[in-house]
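Deliverable D2.4 — example input (structure tokens):
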């Protein structure tokens, strides 16, 4: 009898499976058929494969530009643009630039569920499920006619504009204002603005405009500008044509030509000055502080003593 080897491998399968296990449920609605040539592509990145599956699941006419996809997924515009280029290089995507009758350049995105060489003509689209009976297959030996020449498509939601959205103009700078409120300076600024039409009739301002511009004029006066200097800065070299917006012109000049603040006086440096020395009064012999000896104190000077003496 042969010796039984207890350590020989068993023919029964291992109770713990290795690798992936599929649990599949049959889909009856809302599904997309994807070929393994795409799902298991050796050269496409995982981002490109996932993006191709998403594009194939979209209904016709859905926007598929980079900005729309970046708003839908967290990858960002750079990674999505790179994935689209991968799909174009391997024949799963085509982006055609077309010119509309209005002259606008748009991009038409075409997605293929079978990779198509970039030099070959695109295959005819398959009918939608449930859209009618499929066509009968051609008889053996029959050669299908060539596909019709493509025509310019009508404008559809799937066309994405190439041009970016216009950049908004920069916001105007706020009007300057005084550092410290001063009612007298504000009244002078209001009177200066109200009299500008004496120099140019086109500068007749409304009460609301004067109230809005008066703090800016007060800021000029606070910085040492004289009323004549402010008036000259606002009325000099005005354009000859009619002024459509005189308030905007004055606001621009008050903001752009604002003079700098005057320099502050330098702070006193060093130790405080020493007190004056004590000397005896020549009249009452009382000690008081004075820079020179032999003088009289204040009381003696008021009494008439020391008249003509140096104080």
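Example output (designed residues):
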């Amino acid at each position: 009898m042969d010796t039984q080897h207890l350590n020989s491998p068993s023919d029964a399968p291992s109770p713990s499976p290795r690798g992936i296990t599929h649990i599949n449920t049959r889909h009856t609605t809302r599904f997309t058929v994807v070929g393994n040539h795409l799902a298991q592509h050796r050269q496409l990145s995982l981002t490109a494969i996932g993006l191709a599956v998403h594009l194939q699941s979209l209904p016709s006419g859905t926007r598929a530009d980079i900005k729309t996809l970046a708003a839908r997924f967290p990858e960002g515009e750079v990674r999505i643009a790179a994935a689209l280029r991968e799909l174009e290089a391997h024949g799963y995507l085509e982006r055609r630039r077309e010119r509309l009758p209005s002259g606008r350049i748009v991009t038409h995105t075409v997605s293929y569920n079978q990779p198509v060489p970039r030099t070959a003509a695109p295959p005819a689209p398959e009918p939608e499920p449930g859209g009618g009976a499929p066509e009968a297959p051609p008889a053996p030996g029959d050669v299908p006619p060539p596909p019709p020449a493509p025509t310019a498509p009508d404008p559809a939601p799937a066309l994405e504009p190439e041009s970016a959205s216009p950049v908004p103009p920069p916001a105007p700078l706020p009007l300057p204002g005084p550092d410290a409120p001063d009612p007298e300076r504000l009244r002078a600024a209001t009177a200066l603005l109200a009299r500008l039409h004496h120099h140019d009739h086109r500068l007749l301002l409304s009460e609301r405009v004067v109230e809005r511009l008066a703090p800016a004029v007060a800021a000029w006066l606070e910085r040492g500008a004289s009323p004549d200097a402010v008036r000259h800065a606002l009325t000099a070299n005005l354009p000859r044509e009619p002024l459509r917006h005189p308030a905007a012109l004055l606001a621009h000049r008050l903001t752009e030509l604002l003079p700098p603040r005057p320099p502050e006086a330098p702070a006193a440096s060093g130790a405080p000055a020493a007190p004056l020395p004590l000397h005896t009064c020549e009249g009452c012999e009382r000690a008081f502080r004075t820079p020179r000896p032999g003088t009289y104190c204040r009381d003696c000077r008021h009494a008439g003593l020391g008249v003509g003496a140096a104080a």
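The CA atoms of residues 298 and 304 lie 10 Å apart.
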